[in-house]
Amino acid sequence: MTAGLFISFEGIDGAGKSTHVEALAQAFRDAGRSVTLTREPGGTPLAEQLRVLALNTAMDPLTEALLMFAARRDHLQQVIEPALARGEVVLCDRFTDATFAYQGGGRGFDLAVLAQLERWVQAVDALPAGQLRQPQLTMWFELSPEAAAQRLAGARAPDRFESQPVEFFRKVADGYARRAAGDPGRFARIDGSLPREQVWQQVLDAVRRKGWLA
Ligand SMILES: Nc1ncnc2c1ncn2[C@@H]1O[C@H](COP(=O)(O)OP(=O)(O)O)[C@@H](O)[C@H]1O
Ligand SMILES: Cc1cn([C@H]2C[C@H](O)[C@@H](COP(=O)(O)OP(=O)(O)O)O2)c(=O)[nH]c1=O
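Above: query sequence and adenosine-5'-diphosphate SMILES. Below: predicted holo C-alpha cells.
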C-alpha cells in the first residue's frame, strides 16, 4: 500500500500560503493520489469550534496554547491519523510550528511548556513510543511583515492575530526561524515576495525534490 504523506504550510499571516494549498492538492490528485486538505486550528467540528474561540476571544497565553493543542489532538485523532493510515496525502494549512511561532515567538510563551504539550499531543498509536507525528515536509513561506500586512489590508477582516502590529509578526517570523533551525531537513523555504507563479514553482520544486511528484 502507498505510504501516507504529511505536508504542512506555514508562515506569517498574509505570506501567501493558502493561495497554493489547493493547487498542490490538485497536483497530487492528477498524479493519482487521494488528498485530505485541512487546516489548523480546525479540521474537525470540535476543532473548528475551538478555532472560533481562539481567534476571537481574549485569553491568557497558557489558555491559548492549550486550546491550540486541544484542537490539534482532536484533528490528529479524527482526521490526520486515519488519512495517513489510508495512504493519503495530508495537506495541512498550519500545524505545530505555528504554535511555536505565534504563542512561543509572538506571545513570548514558554517554549519548554509548548515542547511538553507537543510530546503529549503528537504521540499517536501508529508510531512507536518516543516518536512524534510531525509533517514530513513543511513549506515555510517567508515574506516581510510589512509586505504581508500590505497584502492583507482590505483583503479580509482581521482576526485576533491578524490585527497585531508588525513587531508581533517579526517575533512570529523569528519563532519560525528558530523552529526551522532545529529541524532544517523538514523545512522548505519559499520566497513569498515573488509573483504567484514563481512562488508556485518553488512549492512544486520542494515536493519534486522529495521525489513525491514527477
Ligand atoms: N505571490 C503573491 N503576490 C502578491 N499577492 C499575493 C501573492 N500570493 C498571495 N497573494 C495575495 O495576498 C493575500 C494573502 O494571501 P494568502 O494566501 O491568503 O496568505 P496566508 O494564507 O499566508 O495568510 C491574498 O489576498 C492573496 O491573493
Ligand atoms: C495553528 C495555529 C494558528 N495560529 C493563528 C495564526 C493565524 O493568525 C490564525 C489562523 O490561521 P489561518 O488559518 O492561517 O488564518 P486565515 O485562514 O485567516 O489565513 O491562527 C496560532 O496562533 N497558533 C496555532 O497553533
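The mean pLDDT is 97.
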